[in-house]
Amino acid sequence: MHEMLSRLGPTDFPAIARGRTQTLQVNVGYKCNQTCVHCHVNAGPTRTENMDRGTADVVIAFLEASAIGTLDITGGAPELNRNFRYLVESARRLDIHVMDRCNLTVLHENGQHELPEFLAAHGVEIVASLPCYLENNVDAQRGKGVFAASVRALQRLNGLGYGRAGSGLTLNLVYNPQGAVLPPSQTSLESDYRRRLSEAFGIVFNHLYVLTNMPIQRFGSTLVSKGLFDEYMTLLKSAYQPSNVETLMCRSLLSVDWQGYVYDCDFNQMLGLALTRGGQPRVHLSELFDCDLAGNPINVRDHCYGCTAGQGSSCGGALG
User: Fold this and answer.
1) How far apart are CA 135 and CA 153, in angstroms?
2) How far apart are CA 24 and CA 263, in angstroms?
3) Given 215, 222, 233, 307, which residue has the most CB atoms within 10 angstroms?
């Protein structure tokens, strides 16, 4: 795996600062049942990093002590962590909205048979990866048979009410480009997804989130191997839109890794760019109780252009 951080700095990306934290995004580990070429986490079946119960307790205590309204659980495949359901149940008891970043095929894994019913019973919002509505494209990016398994998972979620009007169960899909290009218009692509998935499989969903591939970890290494890294960075920088800076997710989101250390975003977490505070090299979530991070400087490098290029990109899709 090529080392990415040295390729992303020094940067001329503008200095930015945090606002009020509204979302706690917790990466409970890098273990996953898939190995996707676009993955910015370098997740896969052989990864062993996993959040333990003690760290999960710190997360819940922090949520209880703060005014944060959303817990965004990610990975890897977060559902494979033995404390995933504990985090969901504990957060919902605090009346905190919970999001699950789901790859869909995990619903077919051993021990996950009742997972859809569990998510529905707790009103968990599902943000599901489906990088295309065409089987060949999805399987090329995520592995043979992934598209068919994803369709079955989506149909099962729809059967529980997910994505259906009036159910209160939100199902959002996530699109990633196939390579070193910017994603198309989120609005027009969402219309195509709705039509194709409905006509072919009877699948419905709430929204489509369009994400730009980040030049870090596995995708960044692939770019380097193909000699495309500099070209892709030039593309991102040339498409920079200053208006996207004001709505960047790092202004209102706090990222936590499997050990409880904090970052400005999940991308910085994968680069080892810890949140900077008081000169400390790393800050643990347990040190931030009663701390106001508003105004704290955000650690930026050239990969930040990936979030500000074109229509913009965040965990909630396009910014513009």
Assistant:
1) 14
2) 11
3) 215
| pLDDT computed for residue 320 by the predictor | 64
Among 1.10.760.10, 3.20.20.70, 3.20.20.150, 3.30.1360.70, name the CATH number for the domain at 5-308. 3.20.20.70
| Cβ neighbours for 8, distance < 8 A, ≥ 6 positions apart | 215, 216, 271, 301, 302, 303
Give the start-to-end residue ranges of the domains of the chain. 5-308
* Separation of CA 101 from chain center: 6
- Contacts with 317 (C-beta within 8 Å, 6 or more apart), sequence order: 174, 186, 207, 208, 209, 210, 211
- The helix (H) or strand (E) run that includes residue 271 is helix 266-271
Distance CA 55, CA 295 (A): 26
Integer Cα distance of 107 and 142 in angstroms: 16
Residue 135 main-chain phi, psi, to 5 deg: -60, -45
